[in-house]
Amino acid sequence: MRCHEEGGELILTNAPVAMRLGAINKLADDVKALVIPCDVTSNDDMINLITKSKEHFGGGVDFILHSVGMSINMRKGKSYTEIDYLANQKTLDISAISLHCLLATTMKLDAINDWGSVVALTYIAAQRVFPDYNEMADAKALLESVTRSFGYHYALKKHVRVNTYSQSPTRTTAGSGVKGFDGFISYAEKMSPLGIATAEDCANYIVTLFSDLTRYVTMQNLFHDGGFSFTGVTESVIQQMEK
Ligand SMILES: NC(=O)c1ccc[n+]([C@@H]2O[C@H](COP(=O)([O-])OP(=O)(O)OC[C@H]3O[C@@H](n4cnc5c(N)ncnc54)[C@H](O)[C@@H]3O)[C@@H](O)[C@H]2O)c1
Predict the structure, then answer these.
(1) 12 in Cβ contact with 68 (< 8 Å)
(2) Which of 127, 172, 191, 225 gives the lowest tally of CB atoms within 10 Å of its CB?
(3) 60-242 is classed in which CATH architecture?
(4) How many angstroms is it from 236 CA to the middle of ligand 1?
(5) How far is the CA of 194 from the centre of ligand 1 (A)?
(6) Is pLDDT above 80 for 178?
(7) How far apart are alpha carbons 119 and 161 in whole angstroms?
(8) Percent of the chain beyond pLDDT 70?
(9) Regarding beta strands 61-66 and 11-12, do their DSSP bridges make them parallel or antiparallel, or are they unpaired?
(10) Distance CA 61, CA 170 (A)
(11) What is the pLDDT of residue 227?
């Protein structure tokens, strides 16, 4: 929505099965976007998405947001120490390898314009332990690694920036799937000197990362969390502990 407000022309996508449940068509109407289904674990779907996007725009795109994550083990309530490995492969495939597949496909089909920008959404569980974030922590660590490694090659090839963006906890379908999410949010509130960043603030920051004002930012993990990531403790937490 924020990209649309700033004049961006958009294509929206999601897994075909998710489209039946969500409100993607309503959003597409609001932002005048074409919708192209894509299961990110399917190479054919990915090629179709990128090819049709190029046809639609009559050339490459300037920016891409990777906002995909799913953990089957979390859904099934498996603890980190008892995960099912086939399900874990699926989690890594959907949540991390899909970024590699996206970048490899756009590079092969020359689908991102010079100085374009790709942003993938991640979480601080890639750096610090959040026990209930489970196998998604490993998926996010891999996502951030792909960002650095592919970012290097895409910078040399086409000046394309690739970054991950690490957001405060936000109430969404995936967010609410994390065990103890309410406690998670109130802890983050107490530990963030600026308070937790809202979904709208998230969108604002990502618009800057898509703009030409951040052309030399690449291969980074960018925290947007009200200071949470660098705060050791706050008075509010100490007060709570002393109760
Ligand atoms: N909500 C939070 O607190 C929070 C915090 C930091 C980062 N993130 C990240 O933000 C991103 C978006 O998550 P969200 O919180 O908006 O939840 P969400 O559940 O709305 O978004 C995840 C999306 O991934 C899609 N998806 C799952 N499997 C797919 C597949 N095989 N192919 C294509 N799409 C598929 C889902 O349909 C869904 O639309 C995720 O990467 C998540 O890890 C969320």
Answers:
(1) no
(2) 172
(3) 3-Layer(aba) Sandwich (3.40)
(4) 31
(5) 25
(6) no
(7) 8
(8) 100
(9) unpaired
(10) 28
(11) 98
